[in-house]
Specification:
The complex is a heterodimer of chains A (269) and B (123). Chain A is globular. Chain A has an eight-stranded mixed β-sheet, with helices on both faces. Chain A contains twelve helices and eight strands. In chain A, helix 7 links the parallel strand 6 and strand 7. Chain A is an alpha/beta fold and 269 residues long. Chain B starts with a helix and ends with a helix. Helix content of chain B is 55%, strand content 17%. Chain B is built from six helices and four strands; from the N terminus they run H-H-H-E-E-E-E-H-H-H. Chain B is of the alpha+beta class and 123 residues long. Chains A and B meet through helix 7, helix 9 and helix 12 of A and helix 1 and helix 2 of B. The structure holds adenosine-5'-triphosphate and magnesium ion. Magnesium ion (MG) binds next to helix 1 of chain A.
């Protein structure tokens, strides 16, 4: 019997699907049985981020209306053992699925997996309720921006009212340079405001774009930057105590030099 | 030039501090406005209290939290139909209100809290 974890956010585009692809892959690489479920019906893209789009034949919609079995609808990732994807239908919309139907599917998947990661659509509507319907745990993703944090607070309230009490926060796209300049909320600021448990801080990483272009989650090729953060999150999900490093650029003096001579400083560490 | 560099290095008005204080305020408001139930019961208790002193148009009471400058304000709009005489018991006024044929007219000419101080003589 595995764990069903919904990955959600209030604001769109904060990096949920990228998190699901990478954390799911990381867990599978650590020999866990994982199924990632795209619950973003009508706007599916987890398959694309994972590079599995050409192999999707059936979707969760086909399972619901009986035109496929659940087993047949799962797409096996060939790069790693024990990682499967249940894709979302692109032609339907969120209201075509009832929370109970989504719940049934996830509970079946839970029996055969160590982890079922559900990629929720952004927002507070039916799509969110569907995605959260079977989950006992949630990862809330936010960026360190006012609007994203505000919406994260709303979604945390809704998760609590759905009786999901294990809620952890992922702060995505931290830019150490901006944090050092005082132009970006740091993880402490965000935590101070949302007051839930932090499970990871993912830096802004230019390599994400290329990995999405190729359809190969970054975690396959890298252990640093964002990929390192996804690794550590997967380890914390597994219950290991892994410290959360601070993402800092070089001290003020280097930045000062950088400004004077126009050097672009600071690799993300 | 040097001044500008010092400014960059010591930036008093860090935008993240502004972001943080804005967020805090926004969330106080969001969290409060989400708990409709609390608002509802606050409204009914305030209405009950004020009813001891005024005849209110209870259907039109509005109460909300609004952001004003840097603080959160409870803004209430409570139409008052008339002043209650101190000796009057709550019950008598209720009956009065129900029987009085003028009530509908009075409804249309609702007065807000602010206006009532000068005009409550007319009722
Ligand atoms: N740590 C990161 N560094 C750089 N870019 C990132 C990072 N995380 C996500 N992105 C980029 O942000 C964009 C949105 O990511 P993603 O699709 O994962 O978000 P989402 O929350 O699933 O969006 P939606 O709400 O539309 O489902 C993508 O272009 C992705 O490549
Ligand atoms: Mg997504």
């Amino acid at each position: 019997m595995g764990r069903v974890i919904v990955i959600t956010s209030g604001k769109g585009g904060v990096g949920k699907s990228t998190c699901v692809a990478n954390i799911g892959t990381a867990l599978a690489l650590s020999n866990k049985k994982v199924t990632v479920v795209d619950a973003d019906i009508g706007l599916r893209n987890l398959d694309v981020i994972m590079g599995l789009e050409s192999r999707v034949v059936y979707t969760s919609m086909d399972v619901i209306d009986g035109s496929s079995t659940l087993e047949r609808a799962l797409v096996k990732d060939r790069r790693v053992e024990n990682l499967k994807l249940l894709a979302a239908s692109q032609r339907n919309n969120k209201n075509d699925v009832e929370p109970e139907q989504m719940r049934d599917m996830c509970l079946k998947l839970k029996e055969e997996n160590d982890y079922v990661l559900v990629d929720s659509p952004a927002g507070i509507e039916q799509g969110f309720r569907n995605a959260a319907s079977a989950a006992e745990e949630a990862l809330v993703v936010t960026t360190p921006e006012v609007s994203a944090v505000r919406d994260a607070d709303r979604i945390i309230g809704l998760l609590q009212s759905e009786e999901i009490h294990k809620i952890d926060l992922i702060i995505n796209r931290i830019n150490p340079k901006l944090v050092a300049k005082g132009d970006m909320l740091d993880s402490e600021d965000v935590l101070d405001i949302l007051s839930i448990d932090l499970i990871g801080v993912v830096p802004e990483d230019p390599n994400i774009v290329g990995s999405t272009n190729r359809g190969q989650p970054l975690i396959f090729d890298s252990k640093t930057g964002a990929a390192g953060a996804y690794w550590r999150i997967s380890e914390r999900i597994e219950g290991k105590e892994v410290p959360i490093p601070e993402f800092k650029v070089d001290g003020a003096f280097t930045r000062f030099w950088g400004k004077l001579i126009g050097r672009r400083d600071g690799e993300i560490n | 030039m040097i001044q500008r560099l010092i400014q960059i290095l010591t930036r008093a008005d860090k935008s993240k501090d502004i972001a943080k204080s804005r967020l805090k305020l926004i969330l106080v408001q969001d969290r409060l406005s989400i708990s409709e139930e609390v608002m509802q019961s606050l409204q009914s208790e305030v209405t009950k209290l004020l009813s001891k002193y005024f005849t209110l148009n209870t259907d039109e009471v509005e109460m909300d939290l609004e952001r004003e400058d840097n603080a959160l304000a409870l803004v209430a709009n409570i139409p008052i139909l008339g002043m209650k005489e101190r000796e009057n018991e709550l019950n008598t006024t209720e009956i009065q209100k129900d029987n009085e044929p003028d009530t509908e007219k009075a409804n249309k000419e609702q007065q807000t809290e602010k206006e009532v101080t000068e005009e409550n003589d007319s009722n």
